[in-house]
Specification:
mainly alpha; Four Helix Bundle (Hemerythrin (Met), subunit A); extended
């Protein structure tokens, strides 16, 4: 998954980068399945690797993006980026070493006779209904914005 995530950034062709992102999503779904989160793995494939990437590829083809032109390496920027990454990793390690609840086992779900899908749907639409709707509106606005920006002006 990390290999394909790095390829998303390094590849110069937008379509190749998007296809690498699809592979990263599929690898993430495999990780979910290996953790026995089958529903989340299937949703990862259907929503992200399927629908969202089709939308990304549609937008890339609609905008007719070309390959990115290679630039010269800036040594100062590269060293600073490496320093920022090192500080970020050290901060994450520091926080995780002090987080005792992260080492505790996850409690078992109550066996109420209802499936995991029901529990996820109940939580999503009761506790997280507003964020769910806000994300849907943001995606709609982004799609309309791309279509408006890519519209060719008539002379």
């Amino acid at each position: 998954m990390l290999f394909f995530a790095v390829l998303v950034v390094l590849l110069r062709q937008p379509v190749s980068s998007a296809l690498s992102l699809v592979m990263a999503f599929l690898a993430l779904a495999a990780l979910y399945v290996s953790l026995e989160a089958f529903f989340i793995g299937v949703i990862q494939v259907m929503i992200y690797a399927g629908a969202v990437m089709v939308l990304f590829l549609f937008i890339i083809m609609l905008l007719d993006l070309k390959a990115e032109v290679r630039r010269k390496w800036n040594l100062a920027a590269t060293l600073f980026a490496g320093f920022v990454v090192l500080v970020f990793v050290l901060m994450i390690q520091s926080v995780l070493s002090k987080f005792e609840m992260g080492k505790a086992p996850f409690p078992k779900l109550t066996d109420s006779g209802k499936s995991d899908v029901w529990h996820i749907g109940e939580t999503l639409f009761s506790s997280y209904n507003l964020p769910f709707q806000v994300i849907a509106v943001l995606i709609l606005i982004a799609t309309v914005g791309v279509v408006v920006l890519s519209k060719k002006e008539l002379k």
